[in-house]
Amino acid sequence: MSAPVLWHLKVSHYNEKARWALDYKGVRHVRRALMPGRHERTARRLAGISTFPVLELDGAVIGDSTRIIEALERRFPDPPLYPDDPVERRHALELEDFFDEELGPYSRLLVLHHELPDADLFLGTFTPDLGGAQRLGARAMWPRVRRQITGRFGIDDDSVGLAFEKVRDAGLRARAAMSPAGYLVGDEFSVADLTLAALLAPPVAPEQFPYPQPQRGHPRLAPLRDAIAEAGLLDWTREMYARHRGASAEIARADRSPRAVPAEAAVS
What we know:
Blueprint: E1 5-8, H1 13-24, E2 30-33, H2 39-47, E3 54-57, E4 60-63, H3 65-75, H4 86-102, H5 104-115, H6 119-126, H7 132-140, H8 142-152, H9 157-177, H10 191-199, H11 201-204, H12 222-230, H13 234-244, H14 263-266
Parallel strand pairs: 1-2
Antiparallel strand pairs: 1-3, 3-4
Helix pairs in contact: 1-3, 1-10, 4-10, 5-9, 9-12, 10-13
């Protein structure tokens, strides 16, 4: 049986949800990263959708980070991301859905908004594998690309204002749920914590994030980092990454075994 294959975008926070779940569970897998924009055709071919991540697992093709984590919980239950207690599990899944819908699109918009004025920063963040000639071409076309991205994501003063409100709302929801141990559901790390931290990873840029982060500490993102800090989530996100974003379980393409590595090797 071949190893799971994760089709992903390196910087995307929803893709980071799926990567983190695979790594947390120690599931040895192959990763195939595509350039943003170029991934849509592959996603449609594989899963009939236009977005990544897409996971090939045991002959099935699964799109959407939430569905991927659900499938991983069934196939590789240890270490768990869903709490054992039914009430806590329902709460964790409700929080996952809330952050997916009420934070993820808005944190992405805010990163785009703050980076779009700087072509080099934007290209370094979102297309880290773009080669020299291709990067020069993208740089030359940047005014048109910037207009396209602004229109596609509806970036204007109103949407930016709303997005900052969503960050504040996420902080309120998280702080209301947080236990003394710092977790959102009970005293253990769960899918709720993973989701919230992953969706804030691009602006926070934790050291444990597995790909280049040229935006880390960049002054253009300072207003966004300040808003996340005011929401009580900046240090919390860094702490979740430091505690639980352990070693990668990615394998070379030549090794397609679906065996899981020991959990202690994948979880800090």
